[in-house]
Amino acid sequence: MSAAAAVLRRLTFSREVVLLGVLIVLMIVMSILSPFFLTVNNLLNTSRFFVEVGLMSLGMTLIIITGGIDLSVGSNLGLSSVAIGFSFAAGLPLPLAIVLGLVVGTAAGLFNGLFITLLDLHPLVVTLGTFALFQGLAYGATGAEAVSDFPGWFAYFGQAYLGPVPGQLFIFIVAVVMVWLILSRSRFGRYVYAIGNNEEAARFSGVPIRRVKIAIYSGIGLLVGMAAVIYTSRVYTARGDSGLGLELDVISAVVLGGASIYGGSGTIAGTVLGVLIIATLRNGLTLAGVPSTWVLFVLGVLLLVAVFFNEFFRVKEE
Amino acid sequence: MSEARAPTEGRRVSRGEVLRRFMVRPEAPALVFLAVLVAAFSLSSDKFLSGTNFESIVISVAVLGIIALAVNQVVLCGEIDISTGSMMGLCAVAAGAVALSTGGLILPLLAAVAVGALCGAINGLLVTAGRIPSIIVTLGMLYALRGVILLVTGGTWITGVPNEARVLGTGTVLGVGYPVIILFALFLVMELVSRHSTWGRNVFAVGGNRRAARFAGLPIDRVRVLAFTLVGVFVGIASVIYMGRAGSVQTNTGTGLELQVVAAVVIGGTSISGGRGSSLAALTGAVLIGVILNGLVLLGVPGIWQQAVLGALILLAVATDVLRRRLVEGKA
Question: Looking at A20-34, A207-221, B206-220, which range is the least confident one?
């Protein structure tokens, strides 16, 4: 038993080492492709762009560990962003509008969680439905218009720098530490793994499955709300189609980080490396002058390859 | 599924029994809902209940319905396919390119079907041999294929498709448009395949209980690969109808279609967990979506709300499915 645990620990350890190697190789390749890539300014600047995907990936890690999935995060980001922008435009003070954005994001996540647990439905079909619903609400409520006349201090969330370091990087680091503590150092985190490994066994062991699931779907909603605040501040515009397609980045990052899509395994460290690899890829390809549509193609293929290798090696192990 | 296919055994059945048998069919709630909606819309707008309006509704959902008939089989297998939007774009690009260079109808159609079948087979092989869940495979393919479209076309539209290649979209037989005829013909074929072919029965077995199907010696991988490939073939056919109606192919052709297709299947009454449903469910779901979108236009609801209505409908449909099953199981 302890021998098996040691082997398992070594495998997960080596997985993150491999990812780190991939990241370093990728950075070398990118710095050859573009002389601008490996500069301190560019690397710090890149971090302005991956924080939103990073925050959502933290929540998605927990969801995928339980064997679930959330396809609605991109639409939810649009909805939360619109909630901030349009409540502000309607006269709500901006601090309250920001709180409203967080509440809308969390409420949308809570809706997913309740729908999934109370009706015993697969998260896939529920979040496919809310993917359309949230996006449709964001479009419909705004008439596909945008708000961008925010006061100057709103830029603090997405455009501020502390010295050379973008402000949102600190938010991300705090979130990483908190989610890591919850997942690796708390009873709740053990419940998450237990549900993913064997939901039936977890139920008979007294794990409050519904409450845990509702909590993690609401949790990702809150993280989406935070991402929406940063995103809206960064682009300085609230539109219904903000975050369109981001679910691909988020799911790819988590899966690349080693979380099994069938549940039961995954780590925050792996996910953070996955986020960094995808951000490097996006930034490097853009600097190298590759059109953005190609980036989508690369991400799509990357997702397939990552899942394939995950499951391939898992089968080998067994 | 067993209740839905119970043979009548030649004995007389009472009217209540007929009603009960109808109500346990998977597509029953959708059909009732459709009837109520048609009645409501025809009362609120006298333009609704006319032959031409109804034909235009069916024509508008023909592309959606044809793809839904095939995705229905994938869902019955317990899998899902959300790559159909990009796949249809790619098939339409193939059909358009061939139509421009050779003309005619057969060659563009063959090209579209071949491209679709290839994409579908890749989906199926990744799911079965690659052991990747179908949602991830088809999500990846949704983006990857859109990239291929932009690569192949270089971002330019295909315009000026010759008229003989547009027949499937614009032509009529005895006053009925080709899209309507093709939709109903494929529906009949799928009903027959579902009821009377080995593969059609295997699909239900694989989706109902995959483990049992494997122990019974069914080729569960081949059954699923065939279902995914069938989606490609039907997407190919649908893309030629689309091209015929539009007369041009844009690089964003088919965007968002995958969601409507899944919506049609589950709204019609095919269970998302597999093993329960019918081709009639997919057809009903597609027509229902057409009636709702058409009704919204007639009632003056801005088109911008369509996406929200679609999402709400998916959630409503899956919730109804669960509640109905609980009710039936609670009684039994």
Answer: A20-34
Helix (H, G, I), strand (E, B) or coil at A255: helix
What's residue B89's pLDDT? 94
Residue A69 at interface with chain B, using a CB cutoff of 8 Å: yes
β-pair partners for A162: A165
Chain B CB contacts of A296 below 8 Å: 143-144, 146-147
Percent of chain B with pLDDT over 70: 95
Mean pLDDT over A287-313 rounds to 77
Q: B88 with B242: CB under 8 angstroms?
A: yes
Task: Choose among A133, A255, A308: nearest Cβ to B311.
Answer: A133
Could you give the number of structural domains in chain B? 1
Please judge whether A136 and B306 are an interchain contact, meaning their C-beta atoms are less than 8 angstroms apart.
yes
Please report whether residue B199 resides in a domain: yes
**Nearest CB to A300; choose among B143, B155, B323:** B143
Q: Answer for the pair B243, B165: CB distance below 8 angstroms, yes or no.
A: yes
Residue type, A7: V
Longest dimension (CA), chain A: 63
In B136-163, which positions are buried (b, 16+ CB within 10 angstroms) versus exposed (e)? bbbbbbbbbbbbbbbeebeeeebeebee
Structural domain boundaries enclosing B175: 66-252+284-290+309-317
A207 contacts chain B (CB < 8 A): no
Residues B249, B93: Cα–Cα separation, whole Å? 6
Contact by Cβ (8 Å): A79, A278: no
Q: Do A304 and B309 touch (CB under 8 A)?
A: no
Residue B171 lies in a domain: yes
Share of chain A above pLDDT 70, in %: 93
In a domain, B111, yes or no: yes
Q: Which residue has the tokens 């009949």?
A: B188
Contact B70, B233 (CB under 8 A): yes
| Contact flag B304-A293 (C-beta cutoff 8 Å) | no
Those residues with Cβ within 8 angstroms of residue A161's Cβ, 6 or more apart along the chain or in another chain? A167
Is the pLDDT score of B2 beyond 90? no
Mutate to test the interface with A, among B143, B293, B321 (most CBs of A within 10 A): B143
Across the range A271-294, mean pLDDT stands at 83
Quick check: B265 contacting A, CB < 8 Å? no
Q: Three-state SS for A273?
A: helix
How confident is the model at residue A127, as a pLDDT?
Answer: 93
Q: Rounded distance, CA A277 to CA A133, Å?
A: 31
**For residue B8, what pLDDT is reported?**
46
* More confident site: B282 or A7: B282
CB-based contact, B146 to chain A, within 8 Å: yes
Residue B153 counted as domain residue: yes
